[in-house]
Specification:
Two copies of one chain form a homodimer. Chain A is α/β, with parallel strands linked by helices. Chain A has 24 helices and 29 strands. In chain A, 40% of the residues lie in helices and 21% in strands. The interface between A and B is large, with 97 and 97 residues. Chains A, B: In the N-terminal section; belongs to the acetate CoA ligase alpha subunit family.
Chain lengths: 702, 702
């Protein structure tokens, strides 16, 4: 990391004070100092210990005040009660950054929480970068800095890792050791009293030694900040993350672990997506992807060519491709000719290219050379099973040789263990990701393609619609002034009209004759809906009649609706009925909502109307403000999208009309923080356009 | 395997002739013979080679006719052209079984296919058990038999593996070598000209040395036979399988690999499910589960208790539990008391039990001993990350010690590689499945619970409903006699009535006055539906009016419907309209269909009505005949089931009414092979009962 980059005081200190350095090998203060020394750190180390003297060959100072010069970084490894005092002394000694290894703060209850708040406040006041408390520490292999209480020091490499779980860092350091995978920075976030995941992400984004960022999070401190910083970082390099605590059981475990409330899962998911973060579901996938991104270029399209010496794994790869949205494209004619020449007659030259069980290394080499030049192929996957004829090491060498001259990403799956081991190790050392099974290789390629598409997506277009903000403002103010939280229907529709949403013409009438006159003026057909401030849903009294074509139908409906309402709810005040122009009759129905997430802000959702979408969880989410591609994505992302595009010869609906409403809602969320929630349900949509028939708005003081 | 068990001539031959045994070490005939010898096979081996003499120290015979006595098993490793002749000679020598290693048959095209058919016919005629062609061979570790062309011989153990892909066998043999996992039998099915997967499954089911069966299949030879045999085997032991070629891309790859047509995916999935086979999606999962089933008892309930020395992995395990349908139940009060005593104050004694990063082996031991006795816990998962304080080997020993006296299944995930390696190896050797991450451990436990529930499911209840088979038979015969394939509506409804399905009363009328009279007789409300032999769908002419309450509404509807039909389709004959009693008005709508799968027989499906179910793939399938638990499962399996159970205070529908219709359809499928397809769409269902409003039946000669 450049000295002037963010957090350089943490990652690249010229000098470090270890407060709590100890002579006793079982104490963490000893472990940390010893790790610093044995890691080969070349800066100055100042052990601080009240007894002074010498520790591990270094002069120890009784207090931070005794240090010969201000250290860049102070690391505190003391009992909880002594931490604040030590931090004050470091502040007085003009330290730039402090890392508190000590645990026992927020995660243990109220006392710890208050101590942690004091610590954070002190850091803010004295302008100190604070990492922790309750952190395992950090590593920067670039300057041989191992400032952790973990034992292992990973090999140098281009992956950086940050984690909210210290123990996970320890596991990964151990794992990295055995897998010839190299790291640049390692940072255990601890309780995040100072440095947050957003800060670290930004720093790693600017770090020239970091090519791939991987992270483990349980909670996000400031959702908006995290999202906006992450979006900038993912333009430059892949960010792969696992978010734990996404299920109810996981969320309960999280809150008992960190004392943090897990946020709204949908909001977090949308934030990750809109920031271009690659989200994975398991640790295994996290490392599978890290390895792939670190070693290979991104595929520039979805066409994967599979070369295999056995049919079965080829089929499994084909299944995995279909699931992951990759194509097994047929090679070009030129390539097919080369393959026909190079391969025996029983080989399958289409894709998967099955070069058969008796294939030796040279057959792999010839095939790979042909495929490397195939202009229709975007990525290559080499499968090998250890058949009697297989030349494992020689085949690995052939893959490595071809990869050297090939701009396309190449991946391998050598299946087995003992026999294929030497070949696998060669591949890994040469930067060819090699997996034990075809499926994870295919998933990695698919994730890389998604990242390629993210980086090459069109520049986000922000749209600003005309609207009468003053009119909406007056309506909302009025409601707030009289203490309303839920706007009356008419007011909500008025705001909709102010945003030029396609709403029906609506009039409140008090008699059936007024209804007939209103209908005549608007033009038939009309709808009639009971109106009462005491009804939360008209369905409760069956208070809606649709598609009324004649005065007589309107009168009949009036009678039926009002009589039913009086019978079913004799206790309520009935203001009359609304007469409305009818929307399209054979329309499909969709719903747009927004709510405000405490961490991530306004969350807009889209789904088909009806209980089915909810039961099946077929709802898509995005955080506002929405750009043009966001609204296009949110509409297409629901699994029911074919119903809008038209199935079995059905006409496609006017998607632009829906997208326009989504953009307006995004704007409304931005214009009026007073609007807490809004729901358009249902919106009728057909080939012509969309039609908002009902809107609910909940408001509250800011 | 017992000598009298199935396929003992293959798995436990007393003598083996290797036809094509060769002196040249690069020939497969040499490799196979050499593997047989070095594997330590204790029976008699007869090399057969035209040159005679001695091969690898054994006397070779010029032809099978020269053998001193009939071999139990003949293995053919010859060029394709010589295979049939060799098989004839073996038959004349009274061989019991033949295994054909040679490839180049069905998988290579028509010539090969015909040769293979000849071979199969010869085996049938001469009563020879035929394995292959195109097989890697087979292994029986119990008698040190390695009759394969693969190099490795796995350790002895209780897992048996069969595979349609020979190369996969090779990969797995290599993999097993490195993972201290033991096998009993290994069989490469090859082209399945003789022995099929059903035969092998049955044999392994009866094999006392096999505790867990795992398999890889691309196609199934005889679906019905496979399903019925598998069902018996899974009563005794777990069968874990991966079925490749389940996506369109995978199916294309399969057919180019084996020449076999991949069957209907839904039918195969239903067959696996109804046979109690544990289906996995990846090779990794196949082995993860095999290891778990081989080593641990089944959990007898869903309550998993997680013990961890770090919060993060605990949360990941909790997320995985939620996804897999397991509970993280709170331990009993007695256990909580023990834990409070044994653990430091910052530990979390609830589940996941977080014994914190400084935990040494003794803290693990005390916790595990308490959990082992906890009466609410059904299974235990021990997580360890290599923190500075972790005692890895000692913790592994504690787990092993507790497991010895604990009847509950215990699993571990030691995370990392180098440092945790010795602990992991100890656990694996001691039969404690140890995974690199928490997620696969949780998935394995969940699969074991599913198998436990399968084995303890209620005895299947077969239901036979009263029906008027003769009446249905006459209707179908009439239709077939006049060459119909799709039955007229009235006939289909007649068959429905013969099966006592809840159908509306229906009359065909020719004038509006007849319609009014019919309606009066049936009782209002009624429905009116256009009837014409030339319409495939009434929707085409908008030819349905529902919920008619008065003579006037019936007359208006008559006029509207017939006029529309004449205007839109002036070319067709209109027979009149059907008057029908109306079903429930506010009902939910479901669909029941059956089709016939060429491999697995009648396939019954169930879904909600409307395009949504189809688009979202929310359809459940079962193969007929259906038992009582099948129809209960098929209804509850759709993701939309909450819509039937009632959401947001909605009333639950009468599920028994739907189940009865499913049982009747199953019976109809069984009674009349002439019925090729049938569809009840929609069936109206409410809290009272179900009501079949439309039925389509397609028939054809048997």
């Amino acid at each position: 990391m450049h000295p002037d980059a963010h957090l350089s005081e943490l990652f690249s200190p010229a000098s470090i004070a270890v407060v709590g350095a100890s002579r006793s090998p079982i104490k963490l203060g000893h472990v940390l100092l010893s790790n610093l020394i044995s890691g080969g750190y070349r800066g100055t180390i100042f052990p601080v210990n009240p007894a002074g003297g010498e520790i591990l060959g270094l002069t120890a100072y009784p207090t931070a005040a005794d240090l010969p010069r201000p250290p860049d970084l102070g690391i505190i490894v003391l009992p909880r009660e002594q931490v604040l005092q030590a931090m004050r002394e470091l502040a007085d000694a003009h330290v730039d950054a402090v890392c508190v290894i000590t645990a026992g703060f927020r995660e243990t209850g109220r006392d710890g929480f208050e101590l942690e708040m004091e610590m954070a406040e002190l850091a803010r006041r004295r302008n100190i970068t604070l990492l922790g408390p309750n952190t395992l520490g950090l590593i920067n292999t670039g300057i041989d800095l191992n400032a952790t209480i973990a034992q292992a020091m990973p090999a140098k490499g281009s992956i950086s890792f940050f984690s909210q779980s210290g123990a996970l860092c320890a596991a990964i350091l151990d794992w990295a050791d055995g897998e010839s995978i190299g790291f640049s920075k390692f940072i255990s976030l601890g309780n995040k009293a100072g440095v947050s995941e957003a800060d670290v992400l930004e720093a790693l984004g600017d770090d020239p030694d970091t090519k791939v960022i991987i992270g483990y999070l349980e909670s996000v401190e400031d959702g908006r900040k995290f999202q906006s910083r992450a979006r900038l970082v993912t333009e430059k390099k892949p960010v792969i993350m696992i978010k734990a605590g996404t299920t109810p059981a996981g969320a309960r475990a999280t809150s008992s672990h960190t004392g943090a409330m897990a946020g709204n899962v949908e909001a977090a998911t949308a934030a990750f997506k809109q920031a271009g973060i690659i989200r994975v579901e398991s640790l295994e996938e996290l490392f599978d992807l890290a390895r792939a991104f670190a070693a290979q270029p991104l595929p520039e399209g979805p066409n994967l060519t599979v070369v295999t010496n056995s049919g079965g794994p080829g089929i499994l790869a084909a299944d995995a491709c279909e699931d992951a949205g990759l194509n097994l494209a047929r090679p070009s004619l030129a390539t097919l000719e080369k393959l026909t020449e190079a391969l025996p007659p029983f080989a399958s030259i289409y894709n998967p290219i099955d070069i058969i069980g008796d294939a030796k290394a040279e057959r792999y080499r010839a095939t790979l050379e042909a495929v490397a030049e195939d202009e229709l192929t975007h990525a290559i996957l080499v499968l090998l099973t250890p058949t009697a004829s297989a030349e494992i090491v020689e085949t690995a060498q052939a893959v490595i040789d071809v990869a050297k001259t090939c701009a396309k990403p190449i991946f391998a799956s050598f299946m087995g263990d003992e026999r294929i081991g030497p070949g696998r190790d060669m591949l890994l050392k040469a930067g060819i990701p090699c997996y034990g099974y075809p499926e994870p290789a295919v998933r990695a390629i698919s994730a890389m393609l998604a990242h390629y598409r993210w980086k090459n997506r069109p520049y986000p277009v922000e749209v600003c619609f005309r609207r009468d903000k003053g009119r909406a403002e007056r309506t909302i103010e009025n409601a707030l002034n009289i203490g309303l939280t839920e706007l009356p229907f008419a007011d909500a529709m008025d705001i909709a009209a102010a945003y030029e949403l396609p709403v029906p013409e609506t009039r409140l009438v008090r008699t059936s004759e007024q209804a007939v006159r209103a209908a005549k003026k608007m033009g038939y057909p009309v709808a009639l809906k009971i109106e009462s401030p005491h009804l939360s849903s008209r369905g409760e009294v069956d208070g809606v009649a649709l598609d009324l074509h004649t005065p007589r139908e309107v009168r009949d409906a009036w009678l039926a609706i009002t009589a039913r309402a009086q019978r079913k709810r004799p206790d309520i005040y009935i203001a009359g009925c609304l007469v409305q122009t009818m929307g399209p009759v054979k329309a499909r129905e969709v719903v747009i909502r927004f709510t405000r997430d405490p961490q991530f802000g306004p969350l807009i959702s889209f789904c088909m109307a009806g209980p089915s979408a909810e039961v099946l969880g077929d709802v898509s989410y995005r955080l506002a403000p929405l750009a043009l591609h966001d609204v296009q994505d949110i509409v297409r992302e629901i699994r029911s999208f074919p119903l809008l595009r038209g199935v079995r010869g059905g006409e496609p609906v006017n998607l632009t009309a829906i997208e326009d409403i989504l953009l307006s809602m995004s704007q409304m969320a931005d214009d009026f923080p007073e609007i807490r929630e809004a729901e358009l349900n249902p919106i009728l949509v057909d080939a012509e356009g969309a039609f908002v028939t009902d809107m609910r708005i909940t408001v509250g003081p800011i």
